[in-house]
Amino acid sequence: MTKVTRRALLGTLASAPALSVIGMPLIARAAEIELKYGNNLPLGHPLNVRAQEAADRVKTQTNGRVEIKIFPNNQLGGDTDMLSQVRNGGITFFTPSALVIATLVPVAAINAVGFAFADYDQVWKAMDGALGAHVRAAISKVNLFAFEKVWDNGFRQMTTSGRPIESAKEMAGLKIRVPVSPLSLSMFKALDSAPVSLQFSEVYTSLQTKVVDAQENPLPIIQVAKLYEMQKHCAVSNHIWDGFWFIANGRTWNGLPADVKKIVNEAINDAGMQQREDIKKLNATVRTDLESKGLSFNKTNPDSFRAKLREAGFYKDWKDRFGAEAWGLLEGAVGALA
Ligand code: X2X
């Protein structure tokens, strides 16, 4: 029998019909460049749906040269683990929430200052404008590349297994899970709660085992991660607007050929814009769905929360921590805060 090189064999198989006579499925050519992307959300979340579309588009537009492999739902570890992996190049892409990347780039939490944004118009103007640019520049200083368009997590709401929260006074002593985020801890302490920082991978179990009684997240997350199964009440507080920065390891990113970078950049940013639209549409229906699953909703009194935060020195403290420049950009977008 003549010797067949592996390349020739693959060539033969690739030109054969999908199910060849010898019964082997078509073997696709392996991509030259394989890039791993890890995230903390279940597959059904728009972030994963649109990221997969971006990955497919990249594969097509590079004629199969570049493959982005997605590892959703904390498959590669929790938020803190993935943040170190994207720093050391173990993975190329990660989408940390602004709250979480702030453990590394403190100013990135600026969009999460309590009760800063009134609505999405203010959010996108700021994040697609000077405030977002300021944060991306800070991210680049730790050798990470941040894509221009921040993806939407949403306005965060509080859920509890015990009594409902209507005003700031019900926050006293509340055992509430918050992300691994100095700003979230500080804010819930200022509200007299007992916040516990946990990675998202641990939230469902921590509610189930009653390590905590409450948590706070945008409604699409409460829906997709089934957190409603462990909670009774949802307080519509809109206390933080949160987004996901799509980031890349700086070395890997800079080492990619220019044409590949351009294709990936456009695919990711376009997908991000579509993901924002998905969340917008979801926001119109998600409450009714969660109500049908047994979660009861109530309004809150935002002024009581703001007053409590002001009294506790929260705004003054974070103005000092973020610095005058960043704070000025935030206030430029939302008006005076402290
Ligand atoms: O961990 C959370 O609560 C989540 C999913 O919103 C973030 O990634 C910050």
Protein described:
The protein has 338 residues and is α/β, with parallel strands linked by helices. It has 15 helices and eleven strands. The protein has helices at residues 6-15, 46-61, 79-88, 98-101, 120-127, 130-140, 182-190, 203-208, 219-224, 250-255, 258-283, 286-292, 302-311, 314-322, 324-334, and strands spanning 33-38, 66-71, 93-94, 144-146, 151-160, 175-178, 194-197, 214-217, 233-244, 247-249, 296-299. Strand 6, helix 7 and strand 7 (194-197) form a beta-alpha-beta unit. The site of (2S)-2-hydroxy-2-methyl-3-oxobutanoic acid has 10 residues, from helix 4. (2S)-2-hydroxy-2-methyl-3-oxobutanoic acid binds next to helix 4.
First-to-last CA distance = 82 Å
Q: Tell me the quaternary state.
A: single chain
If you average the pLDDT, what whole number results? 93
Q: Calculate Rg over CA atoms.
A: 22 Å
Q: What is the fourth-level CATH superfamily? A: Bacterial extracellular solute-binding protein, family 7
CATH architect. name:
3-Layer(aba) Sandwich
Give the tally of structural domains. Answer: 1
Please work out how many helical segments DSSP would assign.
15
How would you sum up this structure in a few lines?
The chain is an alpha/beta fold.
